[in-house]
Structures are given as structure tokens and as C-alpha cells.
Amino acid sequence: MTKLHYIRNKDCNMKEGLKLNKGKLIAQGKTSEVFEYGQDKILKLFRKDLPEKNIENEYEVSFNLSKKMKLVPKVYDLVEVDDRKGIIYEKVNGTTMMEVISSKPWKVKKEAQRLAELHEAIQKPVDFELPDYKTTLKENISKTELLEEDIKKRLYDYIDELKDDDLLCHGDFHPDNVLITEEGEVIIDWMTASKGSRIADIARTSVMLKFGASPVKRSAEKKIIKFVRNRFYSGYIKHYMKITGINKEQIEEWELPIAAARLNEWLPKSEKVDLLKFIDMKMK
Ligand SMILES: Nc1ncnc2c1ncn2[C@@H]1O[C@H](COP(=O)(O)OP(=O)(O)OP(=O)(O)O)[C@@H](O)[C@H]1O
Ligand SMILES: [Mg+2]
């Protein structure tokens, strides 16, 4: 039995301090563990060292969006379990887009186009408070120890020059954060959502797909994964450019600061080395 403390109780009437079972661990992400929670809910329990501000942002954004968009799972509560913060969500019965691509690689083009369409579909104005994309980028760049101060300063000036906007950006839009169900798609993991240029959000997905380190060690498997990933990347970008009229140069402009900000994330060393080479080449 686990002590569960309700911090906020918007849509449900449970009492503070109720004792409940966490249920089976069903998935693990970089920032959390995800447990079953009753029949039709899940508990996303965050790592202890994650800043509270990020968890609150995920809760607020998911809560606000789920009221407007079918694409976002219902949000029930912000809770505390065993000294860790968590969010209770509606359980989505589906598979991640990543699992679909890995198990049925012949579907890669169709899924890449689906990702582009979903990305375009969320890029709308919002009527609630959200962090600012450019400010968040600068904050993340300021925190990395892998860049010299003068490089950081040049990056801040570069960011200031980029054309801004006021649209909803997911901040971590990739095939592991899209669940495919019989009723349609659901987009999860809104912790890094902000408002800004939609091209910035596309550039982030682009940088993730181009530089993402392979999860496997064997070289033959690595090659296959790289091949599938490249096809996925090009299918996604081409389709997004086709439906929006945005061109490759516009996307590439944002890739430099996005790559620099990613140095502040929990990434494998090899990926950081590749990002640094890219930043170095672009800065020249
Ligand atoms: N509402 C949900 N219903 C069903 N499964 C879910 C739900 N939310 C998350 N999951 C499962 O848990 C996994 C991790 O969730 P999520 O992406 O939100 O966590 P995370 O720790 O932020 O991940 P990362 O930072 O690695 O992207 C998902 O890929 C999915 O398999
Ligand atoms: Mg995720």
C-alpha cells in the first residue's frame, strides 16, 4: 500500500491521504515511471530530481488542452506518492507510433506522414499561460557546461533574430509520444510545451531524428535502425513542408539553437558529441 496525497483535486472527489495501490509498472520514460492505476487510469510518477516547475507545467498544459482537444488524454490529479510527484491520466489503450514503426517497418512512410499531420494539427494559438519557447531555449543553453560563454552569448543573439510566433509547441514531439488507438491518435508528454514558432518545434523533431543515438549496440541492427529512421525523418519533413508550404531553410535556421539546448538534456554521450560537432560546424 502506498500513501497517496492529492495536491490538486479538480475532477475527482477522492480524499487527501487515501491509501491506494500503485499497480503494475507498464512503461518507463526518461523522466518517469508509468503505473497502472485502477482499470482505466495510469499514474505517471516522476523522478525525484525533476524540477517541480516542469511537472506543474505538464499538469497545467495537459489539463487545459484535454478540455479542448481529443488528441490529449484526460487528466485527473496532481499527486504525491512516496515523496515523488505524479499525475493521474486516463489510460490510453494503444501502442506508441515508435512500436508500430519497429514492428511494421513497411508502414514507416505512412506513419511519418501521420506524425507531420498531427504536428501541424496542434500548432494553434492557445488561450492559457505557457512558457515562451525562445526563453526556454536560452535557459537550457545557459545551463549546459559543454559550451563556452562567448558561444552562448552568440547563440542568444542568434535566437533573438529568429522570427517568432505565438503558437502551441509540444517541445518533445516524436513517435514515442504518440499513442495509436482504434479510435485515433493521442499525444502525450506535454511537460516541455510552450508557445512560440511552430518551425522551432519542427526543428526540434528534426534534430532528434537526425542525431538520436541508436538504442542497440550490434552494428547490423544499428544499420537497419538508421535506415528506417532516415526514411522516417525524410517522410516526416517532406510531408510537413508539403502541407504547410514551409521550406527546409526555414527549418534549418532553428536547428542550431535547438541542438545547443539539447546539450542540457539526459542524452547518451555519443549523441552529445554529434550535437557538438554540428554546433561547431554551424557556428563557423
Ligand atoms: N495515458 C497513458 N496511457 C497509456 N500509456 C501511457 C500513458 N502515458 C504514458 N504512457 C506510456 O508510458 C510511456 C512514457 O510516458 P511519457 O512519454 O509521458 O513519459 P516520460 O518519462 O516523459 O518519457 P520521455 O521523457 O522518455 O519521453 C509512454 O511511451 C507510454 O508507453
Ligand atoms: Mg515520452
Automatic annotation (TrEMBL):
Organism taxonomic ancestry: Bacteria, Bacillati, Bacillota, Clostridia, Eubacteriales
Transport found in the keyword field: no
Domain Aminoglycoside phosphotransferase stretches: 25-206
N-terminal signal peptide: none
Keyword Transferase annotated: yes
Protein name per the record: Possible aminoglycoside phosphotransferase (Protein kinase related), diverged
One Pfam family linked to the record: APH
UniProt-listed Gene3D superfamilies: 3.90.1200.10
Taxonomic superkingdom: Bacteria
Keywords: Kinase, Transferase
GO MF term set: kinase activity
